[in-house]
Protein 1
Amino acid sequence: MRPPSLTTRRVAAVSVSLVLAAGAAACGPEDNDAKSSGGDSTPHKGGTLTVLNSNPQQDFDPARLYTSGGGNVPSLVFRTLTTRNRENGAAGTEVVPDLATDTGRPNKDATVWTYTLKAGLKYEDGTAITSADIKYGIERSFAPELSGGAPYLRDWLVGAADYQGPYKDKKGLAAIETPDARTIVFHLNKPEGEFPYLATQTQFTPVPKAKDTGTKYEEHPVSSGPYKVVTNENDGEHLVLERNTYWSTATDAERKAYPDRIDVKSGLDSSVINQRLSASQGADTAAVTTDTNLGPAELAKVTGDKELASRVGTGHFGYTNYIAFNPTVKPFNNVKVRQAISYAIDRSSVVNAAGGSALAESATTFLPNQKSFGYEPYDLFPAGATGNAAKAKELLKEAGHPNGLTVTLTHSNAKDFETSPEIATAIQDALKKAGITVKLQGLEDNDYSDTIHSVKTEPGFFLAHWGADWPSGGPFLAPIFDGRQIVKDGANFNTGLLNDKSVNDEIDAINKLTDLDAAAKRWGALDKKIGEQALTVPLFHPVYKRLYGKDIKNVVISDWTGVLDISQVAVK
């Protein structure tokens, strides 16, 4: 079987884009005490945690959520076979067992994965969680009326491509076996060494068939985690969670679940959220946000206030902002033109346009600069901090443009500090020094997305970004550079239209590896090999800054999700 389809990646990109546009953070705290705030640094049980968000936690159904969406709120209710290690920074990129006793046992070629459930697992009503419930939970995620989740399993499971879910097909998926109540076996189309990463996604949440209410299940999903839903108003605009008394720390080493109650209030303006967290009064002293960052102006104010600065979490998420080329459009069909632009880029001005070095780190590699992705430092077209105009002019002359050239750069009009006019203007100014006149074409956000993701309308020169579904080079490089993922009549993310057999073969070879450290090294080497073709110009990796209330303790932010982990937070 081929790697995940572009349908999968379309959802991935939209999910990541929406989250980051709202301010998805990423993290390993760098400039704050990651474990405490206030006087007594010891976390205690009890109290109410308030969550102030811009985006409602819509579709609160494990079948419909993409990964753990909403900044970890779902992971308080939904447990999965595996989960992310709930630690700060790089340690948080590891996969650890959750409902299962281990991260999975593959057969020799990683086409069959077997899991055993821990003993004593229970739902909020005290009934036992079984392997059949996990199988059923996965099967219902295939139902068209419950769409929205990551469809990797449609690609990966044997015979799953046309499955329509248990409401239409009572037979279920033969590719998932449950020989007993605690064992579940997955049969895959091809080797997938990263299956333990996939098993962290909410589609692997157990759902008791007898309690399934179809599209209404989101109103009261049956909890397998430390909290249960007691209020869900206006499709996730207001969520209230209280303790699931049948959840036990004996079966869950990851979630601390300190607060007694969690009150999630959404639909708020981002400026209001930051104002409330800054003031930190009343219930807001024990408040956090999982989707709202500090902007450049807000950050400047916070930095000048020692007390506020002590309440900022810093994040790094696997995400790259870059220039994309379509090599079928002149003059970008000439590699020397692409190289010239790579040399001409002034990354200092781009970083400033993105909010400054506190909010963006310059990038010369496509892979994010984190070990789990396989990051290998390289700079194939060294532009220095402010661009190498002389080298760019030299390459343009070799490409047949001794007097420079005029090109059009397509960007989004959204004020997102990523693909927006500020970034485009910085690029325009830098390339002018190299004799390249850049005309800017700004599109409204939806038009921009539709235009750049269609082979038929993709421009030759545009701004783009990509984030990973899990911290590995696979979901980063494959959708952008695997030639078999080019979609001519749908959403396409292989913007360079690269179809290099050696690249495709190496992707397949790495996917066979169950040693994730060994796989990471090869993803890094592949990144550099692809980079030599100058199909993209990496610009920067975003950095995220978030405020939290005065009474928040035990702040943990991993490099996997980049958001403050609610399962670790204490409020007194």
Protein 2
Amino acid sequence: MQLKLNKAAIIHAKRATRKYLNNEFRDKLSQAQISVQLCALALLFAVIASSVIILFRLMLVWAEQYTHSEATSFSNVLTDWRSYLPLIGALLIWLLSLLGSKRYRRMGIAYVLHRFKIHYGKVPLQSAAGQFFQALIALVTNFSVGREGPAIHLGAVSASVMAEKFKLPDNSVRIMCASGIAAGIAATFNAPLAAVLFVFEVIVREYKIHYFFPIMLSAICGAVSSQIVFGNVHEYDLINVIRIPLDHYPILLLGGLGLGCTAALFNHSLLKVTAKGQHWPLIYRLLIAGSVTTLIGLVLPQALGSGDLAIHEAISESPNLWFLIALLLGKMLATIAAIGFGVPGGLIGPLYGIGALVGAILALVSSALFPSISPYVGLYTVIGMTAMMGVCLSAPLAALVALLELTNDASIILPAMFVTIPAFLVAYQGFNTSSIFIKQLEIMGLEYKVAPMNQGLQKKGVRVLMNRRFVVVNDDDELLLEVLKRAEGRPVLVRNADHQIEMLRLEIQSFEDETTLSRHLMVGLPDSATLNEAYEALATKRAGEVYIYRNTPNNVIGVISWANLLQEIRSGQV
């Protein structure tokens, strides 16, 4: 008897759980509101995204043990096989690209931004393998690319694919994608707050409270994962940052102007190379990038890699001004060649290297005129890193917080803010500079703009607005009129002989005292769709209804009319 009761209780619990997941749970996720359900899913998917990024970092650390060059003299560099790694890497990246379909070759931050804006953050799973291994090869073979590119792409793929597996509403899939990106960045740099701000400034490009908590939880998960495996490490906390006196700020203003000019030059050069090589075969682009990187590495090996070697030279004791200038030119050229010709990887690492060199050069030049500046070279270096990232990526707040977390020193905040403002004004107004990612999207012909009203409609799922009180009948002329009379104002749907759904209406003829039944074929939308899909289906006629189904078109669960949709738009909630 007890066994039967337990079995019945289990069956009842399963039914209740299934009912909750199919109804109340999906209803809650369809709303543009913060919820425990949304936060729990974001945390679950962040664990998966963080694990992928940690695996990527572990493989990178392991591979770099065998590719790090110990050569010091020029003759040793020429004979060391590691000096030619960029050419080997270019060939390996090309061979890997041949294994997958051409439609999944696009990768990187600009591509993720396109998928986030136009496709609700749904990044194809097939692109993940190419991004993982090609970016790993690019980093191992000393191309001037950063780690955040694969982190953002892999984080977005991990979270969005899991969201689609769970069949979440599309508006929630977009939030999960943003959360996965935050987890990926935080797991890469151990900078959770910078990850949150980067997602809002660069990817989401707006602030909504129901986005904030899932993204913040995911960033926390990514940072904790990084600390568990690699320790609580702040990558640039060894940079000697000394609080600068207020009487030095006029010099910082001049430094901001120089940084703005450098950032504008870098942006325009990179985008020009990107546009030039856009239509060239991939093998040509990769070989050019590999050749340029190899040649630069033979002369200036410190210009290669993500940017750590350049930063080390910038903060070294008694750096040579002319060497830093040559290293800056080499680093910029290597980065433009790699990113511009399509080597998979990020841009933040190289920008840190370039910014550090510019900051150190400005400090050395200024110290020749004002010797009191000499002790503050470390601060100038960090300020240069902040300004270069902020200006080039159009993410000043994320850049500021990132360096704050990476250096673990709050004294950089005020001078970095002071320098970033003139740098932005010079670059954006003086040289007409704009975000690299937006310009890359335009060059590649990928959409990213969404009208404000459509963007607002995309934030809510159809389950929020659908009318659940309706009647579905089979096609029977004798019963239709009777059913319509008894429907008491509820929508009456007819399933015709072709298993299509039609809306039944009772129309009164103005010239005769008669009523006739009319039918109108309806468009069906899955319950994972957003209000924007309903709007696009009805906007051409500005009338009618769409039916909402669960899993298959035969399982109708709701109806949305144009009148209800228009009322929602005019309510001010969209």
Protein 3
Amino acid sequence: MAGMSGRAQLMWDEAVTGYDFGPGHPMDPVRLALTRKLVDAFGLDREVEVVAAKAAGESTLRLVHREDYIHAVKAASVDPGAADQSYGLGTMDDPAFAGMHEVSALIAGQSVGAAEAVWRGEALHAVNFAGGLHHAMPGGASGFCIYNDASLAIARLLELGAERVAYIDVDVHHGDGVQAAFWEDPRVLTISLHEHPRTLFPQTGWPEETGADSAPGSAVNVALPAGTGDAGWLRAFHAVVPELIADFRPQVLVTQHGADTHFEDPLAHLAVSLDAQRAVQVACHDLAHEHADGRWVALGGGGYAVVDVVPRSWTHLVGIAADRAVPPETVIPEGWRQEVFARTRQLAPARMTDGRWPISFSGWEGGYDPADRLDQAVLAARRAVFPLRGLLA
């Protein structure tokens, strides 16, 4: 690990917007284009080093993915109509499209490049908001994800010599692919806060999922009841995550910031605001500085309110990483709002807040209510994992 330059990197290649499952699919790449435009509208592109990394090559992809699966993606990329559904390709969630291998490998390459830059000290923080495709499995596509860039970034850190990498996933869906990739590896601590698997895809992420016998307590799952709002979400995060990160002492922190926890998101049932999302982004930044010498790789993820929520949420993430945090009450530049209307015929939001800032919540240290559903979720996670890590539940 070299010394830090301090400057943040924003990983971006315009071609990532070619990650397009077609008209009507929830994962509309306009969300990436509009995020990049909003970053520029606030001048944040001048506060970071914008870097386009090369696509992940086959040897890199094989750090996580099976060779037969990579070949199936390549074949579907050439002939989408012949996609092999046994690999999760050519399905409703993951339709095959021409060039899918190339653009998926390009997104993965941005996350791997972010990890390399942070490990080598070329940047203290690096953001790839096109990444966070956390459902892809070693041998198959799943949940709008072809290659698991988050897992690949972590695997590359291990290959470079990292001995402890922590992964925090606050997407509304369980970070199942990343958990699966490192299930048996005690060098990686995966923590996922998500809507309860009883009510949401992928129906995994139960608190009892705590890692293989070779890595007890290396997987942490906080399964939140549907309807959880800002105060509960922040309470759960702070009741579980900081204590585990402090104990684990990661050399690098990798975080996934799916914006689909939002109350406007059409695919899930949490009731979190943009302001709470920003608060967790700040908390992750602070945890990196407190416990990982500032080394932070931040990724995007889900998020299907593609105009109202995603661009604002990830612009906040870029601002925080750049040490130029955008105040919540900031008015959004009119030029961006006009572009949104021109591209989508939707009215754009006016400010960088949902009007919930600042958010107050009760800390865990003040006690808990065993009859409260949110506190039950926190207790289940703590009781499942904390003793395995030598911590008091």
